[in-house]
Design goal:
Radius of gyration: 18 Å
Number of strands: 4
Number of domains: 1
Shape: extended
Largest sheet: 4 strands, antiparallel
Helix content: 25-40%
Number of helices: 2
Oligomer: single chain
């Protein structure tokens, strides 16, 4: 079944009373990432349910993270651009 981009949702659910987060997804890219984590770290990440279009995983809620946006100075941007140009020229 082909889902529209809008239908390829991911929902993370957790509460203050439990130590486990639940992730429900219909996005194939997220499923691949979580399937890899489940295979590599079976004691931490668990596949708890699936159907033909979605999968549900559980893992410690401490693994859900929020990050500040990265701020680069103009000099850092210029250096990164030069590095990428060198990499692209070598390929």
């Amino acid at each position: 079944m082909k889902l529209s981009r809008y239908e390829q949702e991911t929902v993370v659910n957790y509460n203050a009373g439990e130590q486990t987060a639940t992730l429900y997804t219909r996005d194939k890219a997220v499923m691949r990432k979580l399937d890899t984590l489940t295979a590599d770290f079976p004691d931490t990440y668990k596949l708890t349910g699936q159907d033909e279009v979605s999968k549900t995983y559980s893992f410690p809620k401490s693994y859900v993270s929020y990050r500040k946006p990265r701020k680069l100075s103009m000099e850092q941007r210029k250096q990164a651009q030069e590095q990428m140009n060198k990499i692209n020229m070598n390929n």
